[in-house]
Design the sequence.
C-alpha cells in the first residue's frame, strides 16, 4: 500500500480526458475539489468538458495534447506548472485498441497501439517526474486493463501493450519509493464507453459487448478511491477478478478455455485444413519380382 491522500486540493493531470473513463475521472475529481488539468487531442470535446466542470463549480483547465508527441508531452507539464504551480497526481489514461487476429494483421497496427498505450504513457511519466518529485504525496496512476493480467484472443496487441504497462508499473513502483512517489495500476474490465467505436480496426470474430460492463463513472469512482487509499493494484468487475484468479492459479485451464473458444470460431477453416485429399488410383500396379524380400532386396 502507498500513501493515503485526499482528492480535494490535489493537482491532477489526466490524459485522454475528453471521452470515456478519462472524462468521467476529470469531472468526478473536479467535483471533489481537485484542480484538474485535462489533456486530449480534441479542442471541441475539451471545451465541452471544461464547461460542464465549471458549471458544477469545479476547477478544470484544458490542454490540447497528443501523448505520442514529445512537444505535446512537454506542453502538458508546462501547463500543470503554469496553472497550478506543480503536480501531485498523474493519471495516464490515454489509450487506443484494435481487434483482429494477429496472423491477419500488419505490423503497423501493433506499433500504433504500443506508441500510445506504452510509449506515450512512459514518456509522459518521464516528463512529469520533476514536477511529481516536488508534489504533495505524489502518485502516478496508470489506467490499464484486465487484458494486462490475462491476454485476450483477437486482442493480442492491446493485451501486449497493457502487459507492458503492468511490468513497467511494477518496476517503477520500487524505483519511485526513494522519491516518495506511489505507482498505482487500475485495471478495468468491460466498460460502457465508446472505446470500441474509436478502435483502429475491428476485425475480430470474437465479439465483446462493452455495454454489459460497468459505467465509466463507476470506474472513475473506483480509481479515485484507490488514489485516496494508496492502493497499488485495483482489478474491477467480478468477471475481471475471476479471469485474473483463474489465470493465476489455473493457467492451463485458462489456456484451454481460450483455445476452445477460438477453435469454435474457426471450426470450418480447421475442418477444411485437416481434410485429406483423395489420391487417384495408380494407372498400373508395379510388378513384384519373384523371390524379392520385403525391403526390395533380391533373395540370394
Sequence:
Amino acid at each position: 500500500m502507498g500513501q493515503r491522500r485526499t482528492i480535494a486540493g490535489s493537482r491532477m493531470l489526466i490524459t485522454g480526458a475528453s471521452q470515456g473513463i478519462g472524462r468521467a475521472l476529470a469531472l468526478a475529481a473536479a467535483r471533489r475539489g481537485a484542480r484538474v488539468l485535462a489533456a486530449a487531442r480534441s479542442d471541441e470535446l475539451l471545451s465541452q468538458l471544461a464547461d460542464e466542470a465549471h458549471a458544477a463549480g469545479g476547477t478544470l483547465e484544458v490542454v490540447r495534447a497528443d501523448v505520442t508527441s514529445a512537444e505535446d508531452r512537454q506542453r502538458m507539464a508546462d501547463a500543470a506548472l503554469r496553472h497550478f504551480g506543480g503536480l501531485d497526481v498523474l493519471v495516464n489514461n490515454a489509450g487506443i485498441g484494435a481487434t483482429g487476429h494477429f496472423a491477419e494483421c500488419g505490423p503497423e497496427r501493433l506499433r500504433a497501439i504500443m506508441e500510445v498505450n506504452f510509449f506515450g504513457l512512459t514518456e509522459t511519466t518521464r516528463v512529469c517526474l520533476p514536477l511529481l518529485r516536488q508534489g504533495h504525496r505524489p502518485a502516478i496512476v496508470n489506467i490499464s486493463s484486465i487484458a494486462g493480467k490475462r491476454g485476450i484472443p483477437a486482442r493480442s496487441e492491446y493485451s501486449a501493450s497493457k502487459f507492458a504497462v503492468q511490468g513497467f508499473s511494477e518496476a517503477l513502483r520500487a524505483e519511485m519509493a526513494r522519491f516518495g512517489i506511489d505507482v498505482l495500476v487500475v485495471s478495468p474490465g468491460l466498460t460502457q464507453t465508446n472505446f470500441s467505436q474509436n478502435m483502429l480496426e475491428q476485425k475480430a470474430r470474437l465479439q465483446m459487448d462493452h455495454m454489459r460492463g460497468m459505467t465509466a463513472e463507476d470506474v472513475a469512482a473506483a480509481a479515485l478511491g484507490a488514489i485516496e487509499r494508496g492502493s497499488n493494484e485495483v482489478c474491477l468487475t467480478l468477471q475481471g477478478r475471476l479471469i485474473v484468479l483463474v489465470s493465476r492459479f489455473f493457467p492451463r485451464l485458462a489456456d484451454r478455455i481460450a483455445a476452445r473458444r477460438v477453435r469454435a470460431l474457426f471450426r470450418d477453416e480447421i475442418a477444411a485444413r485437416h481434410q485429406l485429399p483423395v489420391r487417384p488410383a495408380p494407372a498400373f500396379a508395379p510388378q513384384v519380382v519373384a523371390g524379392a524380400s520385403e525391403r526390395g532386396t533380391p533373395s540370394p
